[in-house]
């Protein structure tokens, strides 16, 4: 067993209405300190977590969506979004926040963290993981 | 095989804590090791020692306490999730100025790092929830 494992956090729930999305993000932030190979997957209603322009004042809960833009600073740079889940909800990639990271292996070039993948590709991504946490 | 277990739904409302309990018993009986169970989301509510279900019902928290004692399983409750939901150990109750703690025997409160560490140190991580 190698020292570094592949961790995938699967986000399937809308950002508000239940606490799963927020507490998933808390695990990701803590987990970043462990120097593992981390990916995030967004599917089903989980794709709403990444939408731009979230406004939560009226429901009295914290808007945590800006935190996704900070993930690059934690070396969390692979955010896989399932294309079919977007389409089923009338969303496109343009409805999502712009999330980037600086690639240290490429002269700190700014690159997009979000990668829209097909459902079939998502199954491959899941099959490659050592640890999957589902929220 | 070393198996890590996560319980992420609350007791009685949801079957996750029961299914996880039965799974752990079955895994141990089959010769596997279950070094740790991590309680997250509403799963932290399994750890209250103030639960008093009707006598003809299973006592989920007591079941876990007994199982942990018998097999030396580390039952870890996430501190961030526990504080939101009012699960406190003695130290935390004193620190927060509360008049009592409510954590059951065999459970301990610690950080999310324990969940990640469990994922790294076990051969399989199995999550029970929605």
Which regions of chain A have little confidence, pLDDT < 50, spanning 5+ residues? none
The major β-sheet of chain B equals: 5 strands, parallel
Question: Helix tally of chain A?
Answer: 4
The CATH level-2 architecture of chain A is identified as 3-Layer(aba) Sandwich
Kindly estimate the percentage of residues of chain A that lie in beta strands according to DSSP. Answer: 15-25%
The residue-averaged pLDDT of chain A reads 96
CATH class type of chain A: Alpha Beta
Strand and helix order of chain B: EHEHEHHEHE
Question: How large, in whole angstroms, is the Cα Rg of chain A?
Answer: 15 Å
Strand count of chain A: 7
The CATH superfamily label of chain B reads: DsrEFH-like
Q: Order of strands in the sheet with the most strands of chain A?
A: 6-3-2-1-7
User: In the residues of chain B, how many domains can be counted?
Assistant: 1
Poorly predicted runs of chain B: none
Seen as an oligomer or otherwise, the chain set is: heterodimer
Q: What is the helix content of chain B?
A: 25-40%
Task: Write the element-wise H/E pattern of chain A from the N-terminal end onward.
Answer: EHEHEHEEEHE
Shape of chain B: globular
Structure description:
The complex is a heterodimer of chains A (135) and B (130). Chain A is an alpha/beta fold. Chain A has one domain (6-134): Hypothetical Protein Ychn, Chain: A (3-Layer(aba) Sandwich). In chain A, 23% of the residues lie in helices and 24% in strands. The mean pLDDT of chain A is 96. In chain B, 39% of the residues are buried. Chain B contains five helices and five strands. Chain B has a single domain (3-128), classed as 3-Layer(aba) Sandwich (Hypothetical Protein Ychn, Chain: A), CATH 3.40.1260.10. Chain B has helices at residues 16-29, 60-71, 79-85, 90-95, 113-121, and strands spanning 3-7, 36-39, 74-78, 107-110, 124-128. In chain B, helix 1 (16-29) runs parallel beside helix 2 (60-71). At the A-B interface, helix 1 and strand 7 of A face helix 3 and helix 5 of B.
